[in-house]
Amino acid sequence: MNWWVKALIVTAFWLGLTVAAATVHHMVPHGKSTPQQERAIGEKYGEAAVKGMILIWIVELLLRNKGTNEGQTGQSKRFNTQSSLSLVAGIMISLISSVASQQREFVPVAVLVGLVGWALIIWGTVNYARWKGYSGWFGLFGYLLVVGLGVLACFPNRRKQLFQDCQPEQLDQLNEFSQEDRKPSYRFLLALTPLVVGVVIWLIVLLRHSSLAAEEWKEVIRPTLGFYALMPGTSRIEQKTQETPAGNFEMCKFMVDKKGSFMICSVHFPQEIGLKLGGVERLLEMGRKDFLSALEVLHGHVESESHITLNGNPGLELEALTPKRLVVKARIYATTNQVYEIWAYVGQYRLASKDVSKFLDSFKLLDEPATATNRGSK
What we know:
By secondary structure, this protein is α+β, with helices and mostly antiparallel strands. It folds into two domains: 3-208, no CATH class; 214-375, Mog1/PsbP, alpha/beta/alpha sandwich (Protein Transport Mog1p, Chain A). Helix content is 50%, strand content 21%. The chain has a seven-stranded antiparallel β-sheet with strand order 3-4-5-9-8-7-6, with helices on both faces. Strands 1-2-10 form a three-stranded antiparallel β-sheet. The N and C termini lie far apart (74 Å). The relative contact order is 0.08.
């Protein structure tokens, strides 16, 4: 089969795979996404499709002489085939995982799948180096991905040169080639050792950031503040009171730092002040501005925002990302004289754990303070 026919077949397969991956990505539930985010993901898959096509043709072009060069023994043909399959498969998997990682819920799986793609690329460069007549250890250039493949592509094809210019005095060199080709390839699996170590480290990180045990969660019941919630540990409390002629402004924060930062902030206004400020919607906007002000300090930006309700009270759910790949997910609620801000500030990989949703979903407004008082406070 001509190399370009093979490239066309692989390209068609790649395009089908990209469309299928994009379709599955949009069908799988993965939290709330805005139409803009959905379009952005679709564009990423489009970019991946173009990049994949270019790289596939480059790989097939580099290996286009399969079966036609002098010196192509059965063993060297095997190197060529393994190199082609591994490089193409590795490129496909790496590009798909790169796009999938744009959705935070998919990050842990996408990273592991991406490492598999990386391993295939390295194995492909090992066989590519051997096919060109060099030690398989030159395949370590595969750690540089496309750059490493480009470096190897610049190496002259020693195998081709030797067989084309074969002289009687080069018989010993030909025998060395033959002996090297017959040596098993498994010893070059050691080239994957750094990658295996990386996988182990990644798994340790995932375990460290896994969900907290049930016994670590503590109830926070505050009838005087009108809410109930669960927090991942014993909270430390900060309180501030500001006296005004119309009454006291009271702010109370509950904070826990465990595998991230979790906070509930309650701001109580005198009823008269709440009405003068413009009512519930105005108080909700004040809570939103407070969130954005804090986000500026973190140099983050809002990625999604949606309206929600709790017991008929209006609210907002916001999700933001910082340059350090930390995620802030917050819910803000407002009543006639109170604003509640519930924040979870965690590493990007922690967002997929159950802790964030458990914390946010546990927050409840107490509509009947007398009943809540009988339950006590913790």
